[in-house]
Amino acid sequence: MLKTRFENYPKGKPFSTILGDFLGQGIFNVDGHSWRFQRKMASLELDRHSVRSYAYEIVNHEIEHRLIPLLSSVCSNSDDGNGVFLDLQDVFKRFSFDSICKFSFGLDPMCLELSLPLSKFTIAFDMASKLSAERAMTPSPIIWKIKRILNLGSEKQLKESINIIDSLAKEVIARKREVGFSTQKDLLSRFMRSVEDESYLRDIVVSFLLAGRDTVASALTSFFWLIGTHPNVASAIRLEADRVLGLNQGLKSFDQMQELHYLQSAIYESMRLYPPVQFDSKFCEQDDVLPDGTFVRKGTRVTYHPYAMGRIQEIWGSDCMEFKPDRWLKDGVFFKENPFQYPVFQPGHRVCLGKEMAVMEMKTVVLSLLRRFNIEHAAHESSSVPRFSPGLTATLSGGLPVLVKERTSTTIES
Ligand code: HEM
């Protein structure tokens, strides 16, 4: 049985080790028993209709009150009224951080308010993620381990960032205990109603932030990169929305989204070509044999590669390199591929717990932006292939500079 190494961690291992150890080895830091308990609880919470509707409310609010006003402001700020360039990747990172913080512990870091400086928490979080990813690039783990023991350079910085995140997370939990959490809807308050252990609560919250922030931003960035070169897909999404929701009518409910099959197909197709988690590793706990008969020795690192798997002709056909949302439709209805052939959210017992939330978030953003704006690549970007920086999630090096123009023919009523 292949298991990730963190399942063997001793109980109560402090959070200060999570960011360091989660590189390619999973996200939670608890042992097998409590991990399963935590996972069960987390999925129970996320599967609830009330939780999904709450997530939908947050995302919608962030879009209507921050994302759209921000994009509209860059359209009107240009001298000729034709728009100015904007780094859409940076905007999506800010958007998804605000959304996941509000969802996870009811805290609004206001990253999309560009006029405000980024909070201490956001800066520390970014720094810790970056430094953790850089560990993977050191020629040998011994280097960073020695630096950690001696508390030097990047390891010293990492420790400081983690301390900031740790103490802010503790502060949030303490404040919630003071003001009461019985009626609050965020994830932390829901967990606090049944869990006492403070470090456990802190780990849940930080794990969700880690898992839900850069992944969504990455998926949205790649989607809009593809849309820039496939205006026909943007038109098809708009047409479907007008047909299903009504001309110039916004989404009325979370459930109405299920009827947008082409939109869903376009999102799945975009993540087939550009999965946010491009590869992911597991470590074999004991000698094992893979289903195809390959022997795997205890301690071996096994990596699955969604980016490569999305480009395999035997799975996707001879047109596997093309962006074709229609491949996900049967008689106009979206059908899911076998998750073991499309492991973007990791299949099996360890499937992403935020999968539904992530797809909902993406659909809501894509729909809102495409119906209100024309978003074009900066001229020099349009013909190039995307280049990614090394990191835990796919990030376009140089960002995604776009030109945003308001579509004059539409006023969406929500
Ligand atoms: C497009 C966006 C997303 C993608 C592609 C994605 C993908 C993944 C993948 C591949 C894993 C497995 C990681 C591993 O075990 O090594 C994972 C785990 C996880 N994801 Fe997501 N994720 C996304 C968004 C989200 C969101 C928005 C949330 C939270 C609301 C979330 C919560 C989680 C959690 C809690 C786990 C850990 C599950 C476990 O360890 O058993 N994810 N995700």
From TrEMBL:
GO terms for molecular function: heme binding; iron ion binding; monooxygenase activity; oxidoreductase activity, acting on paired donors, with incorporation or reduction of molecular oxygen. Its cofactor is heme. Heme binds at residue 352. Pfam families: p450. Keywords: Heme, Iron, Metal-binding, Monooxygenase, Oxidoreductase. It comes from the Eukaryota. Belongs to the cytochrome P450 family. This is Cytochrome P450.
